[in-house]
Automatic annotation (TrEMBL):
Domain Protein furry C-terminal: residue ranges: 5-195
Signal peptide: none
InterPro entries: Fry_C, Furry/Tao3/Mor2
Source species of the chain: Cercocebus atys (Sooty mangabey)
Protein name: FRY microtubule binding protein
Superkingdom of the source species: Eukaryota
Gene Ontology CC entries for this record: cell cortex; site of polarized growth
Gene Ontology terms: biological process: cell morphogenesis; neuron projection development
Amino acid sequence: MESLAQLELCQRLYKLHFQLLLLFQSYCKLIGQVHEVSSMPELLNMSRELSDLKKHLKEASAVIAADPLYSEGAWSEPTFTSTEAAIQSMLECLKNNELGKALRQIRECRSLWPNDIFGSSSDDEVQTLLNIYFRHQTLGQTGTYALVGSNQSLTEICTKLMELNMEIRDMIRRAQSYRVLTTFLPDSSVSGTSL
């Protein structure tokens, strides 16, 4: 009975993995359509600008994490009177390439206004700053978009998922054939009878 339960679990895992593959393929198609639309002249693509900013913010975040001088209480930050003033200050820091200062400010704002536009302490600081920057840059504009993500090829990921799906399917088929064989083999624990 335990082997039947394991086989059932494997079959369900295969179905779940196949659904994940279909979802990822749909995502790839969506990204492809976005790239097609991006060639339209009336659209503004901020992907490169935000990708560069993300890279630089990640580097600044790593420097802050590695340097004990950047610890939480080491810098005296101005206490902001409003979220608007804080956003303006962060945007100025981002424009002036003071990325470490912007990261420290987002931390202060999260303590002043938890779960507001600045997110919570569990949210990624870099992503929050990117969202604030993008919103500010696109105020009152239509047709602006940005795709910021990994540089790994989506087709490569899709191919790997398909290969893994085929391997799982083959393992399930082998397990099913073993189950069929064991049901037809005589039970070795039964002792022979004599007449």
